[in-house]
Design a protein that fits this description.
Distance between the termini: 95 Å
Low-confidence stretches: none
Number of strands: 12
Shape: globular
Number of helices: 6
Oligomer: single chain
Largest sheet: 8 strands, antiparallel
Helix content: 25-40%
Structural class: alpha+beta
């Protein structure tokens, strides 16, 4: 009897000594079923390709404009929500964790790796000097520097580099994305006019596939079907515009065409790829 009383008192004292914050709280599910954990998802391996099996190939560079309606699910949500993050947040978090390596945007050959601090320096907001008046006497005017913090919402477009090729062993035309690059709008500091775009850094896409496969994107058509960013790029669920193809002079389309002519030239390049595929199966 004494032993039973001792154990009872010991249990009561232990329960009183546990702080409320350390007690287990059974939080409700956000939904009516348990969703799978995307952290365990792996990308589907690419089929092996041998150089001797490649009969034809073409390198293409594209721009994915996040302001287009079909691409807005890559831009939102502005802040992480449930399991969703926008594409830029996934890339920055991957660089921060060491899962992704950024390469200098001076070329797209992935030759100059950047540290996380160097990446954040490129991503840091613009530094502006403004002329303001003091709120107390003598109410004189002075210059002050204001740094605008970086936000993933500052990224309005991505560039991708990809290779199209015909594999005679499997008798297929396939596309493999080689790199992805966030692009930032550039404005004139004095007038605020739009001056163009600037690439920030390149990510080697084959190394990023595992991170993208574990990152859930918003599916604008069906909440029950969860999409990873790897799914989006593998299924090419985005719209884009070609801005360059491999050519003798290494020229961009903008170097020799503008406006509607540039759009028609981009469509001409895409149509040439479709025609090549179609002609492969004409007897």
């Amino acid at each position: 009897m004494k032993k039973f009383l001792f154990l009872t008192v010991a249990v009561i004292l232990c329960s009183l000594s546990i702080p409320a914050s350390a007690q287990y709280v059974d939080t409700p599910k956000d939904g009516f079923y348990q969703k799978n954990n995307y952290a365990d998802k792996e990308p589907i391996p690419y089929p092996e390709v041998n150089e001797s099996d490649i009969m034809w190939s073409k390198r293409i560079w594209r721009t994915i404009d996040l302001r287009e309606k079909a691409n807005q699910f890559l831009y939102y949500p502005e802040e992480p929500q449930n399991d969703w993050k926008n594409l830029m947040s996934v890339i920055v978090d991957g660089i921060n964790s060491g899962d992704l390596t950024a390469y200098d945007a001076s070329n797209d050959a992935f030759t100059s790796p950047l540290s996380y601090d160097e990446v954040m320096e490129k991503l840091s907001g613009s530094v502006d000097t403004i002329h303001i008046q003091r709120a107390v006497e003598p109410y004189d005017w002075y210059d002050t520097i204001i740094t605008n913090d970086f936000s993933s919402q500052d990224i309005k477009a991505f560039r991708i580099k990809e290779d199209w090729f015909f594999d005679k062993k499997r008798s297929v035309i396939e596309c493999r994305i080689i790199g992805i690059c966030p692009v930032k709008d550039v404005y004139d500091k004095s007038t605020g006019e739009f001056r163009g775009t600037a690439p920030l850094f390149w990510i080697y896409y084959p190394d990023a596939r595992r991170t993208f496969a574990k990152s859930c994107a918003f599916n604008p058509k069906n909440d029950a079907v969860r999409l990873s960013y790897e799914d989006i790029f593998a299924r090419r669920m985005f719209t884009s515009t070609i801005y360059k193809e491999s050519n003798t002079y290494d020229r961009y389309i903008s170097d020799y065409a503008t406006g509607l002519d540039a759009l028609l030239e981009a469509e001409k390049i895409q149509e040439a790829i479709r025609e090549f595929e179609s002609n492969m199966w004409q007897y």
